């Protein structure tokens, strides 16, 4: 069993009934070239084979820690438990149905934050695939703080499983909000709060594969997310530029998505999702 190395990056992986994909996600962490990490798997009360699968990795590698909530607490409280358990200077995120493709992802992001002390968060691009792993499209966020800051109210510029951020900065802004108003947009809300404390960036790497499936949280709750995006624009409009156009865009996006079920062709629906 690999021994625990000095921990620089804590990886938080929340999971609920993720037996179908979680082994693939954990394996992608084990393939990272950067070794100074710990993986904190926080099980939010799964009743499938998730405990056995995650527990087997923890037995094989001391850097993998498996924690189980006593009851289903929801994604926001589960993420904050991971933050409280984290020992690294930096924190990375991974969802149970996503995969890190680039073996240099953690090392590149840690090096970036080491050399850019004014930055509090750095993400990467993402390849979006279906449940069979077939690529649907690619998403590359804006790279520089100036461009991100000018756009962040209009859209979330970061895919959750790509990010690495400074743990002390996130704790300073209160961690993930557990307010019902930010449920399903807790990541976006956190980026907006972090941007008031430091600079934001993306690296020009397609470092992850994100799975788009009809049963995951993001897909099921997209209308609710888009409506809450409108409230986020209102809440943070004093902290970021172009708030008026961002509010108009948010309402138009929400209206278009509500019409999505009436589009009979999957290609049209996918085009709208990709545009968002």
TrEMBL record:
InterPro entries: Glyco_trans_2-like, Glycosyltransf_2, Nucleotide-diphossugar_trans. The keyword Thylakoid does not apply. GO terms for molecular function: glycosyltransferase activity. Gene3D superfamilies: Spore Coat Polysaccharide Biosynthesis Protein SpsA, Chain A. Residues 10-170 form the Glycosyltransferase 2-like domain. Keywords: Glycosyltransferase, Transferase. The keyword Glycosyltransferase applies. Coiled coil: none annotated. It comes from the Bacteria. Belongs to the glycosyltransferase 2 family. This is Glycosyltransferase 2-like domain-containing protein. It comes from Candidatus Liptonbacteria bacterium RIFCSPLOWO2_01_FULL_56_20. The lineage of its organism: Bacteria, Candidatus Liptoniibacteriota.
């Amino acid at each position: 069993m690999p021994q625990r190395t000095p921990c620089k990056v804590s990886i938080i992986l929340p999971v609920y009934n993720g037996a179908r994909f979680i082994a693939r996600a954990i394996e992608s962490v084990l393939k990272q070239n950067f070794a100074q990490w710990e993986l904190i798997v926080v099980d939010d009360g799964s009743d499938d084979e998730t405990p056995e699968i995650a527990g087997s990795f923890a037995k094989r590698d001391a850097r993998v820690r498996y924690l189980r909530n006593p009851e289903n607490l929801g994604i926001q409280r589960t993420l904050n438990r991971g933050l409280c358990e984290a020992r690294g200077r930096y924190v990375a995120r991974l969802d149970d149905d996503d995969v890190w493709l680039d073996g240099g992802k953690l090392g590149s992001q840690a090096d970036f934050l080491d050399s850019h002390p004014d930055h509090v968060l750095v993400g990467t691009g993402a390849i979006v695939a279906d449940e069979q792993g077939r690529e649907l499209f690619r998403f590359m966020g804006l790279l520089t703080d100036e461009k991100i800051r000018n756009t962040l109210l209009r859209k979330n510029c970061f895919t959750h499983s790509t990010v690495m951020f400074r743990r002390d900065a996130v704790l300073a802004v209160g961690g993930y909000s557990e307010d019902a108003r930010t449920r399903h947009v807790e990541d976006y809300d956190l980026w907006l709060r972090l941007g008031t404390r430091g600079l934001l960036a993306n690296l020009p790497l397609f470092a992850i594969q994100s799975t788009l499936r009809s049963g995951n949280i993001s897909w099921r709750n997209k209308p609710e997310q888009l409506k809450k995006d409108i409230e986020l624009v209102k809440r943070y409009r004093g902290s970021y530029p172009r708030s008026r156009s961002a509010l108009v865009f948010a309402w138009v996006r929400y209206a278009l998505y509500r019409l999505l079920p009436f589009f009979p062709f999957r290609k049209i629906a996918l085009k709208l999702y990709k545009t968002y």
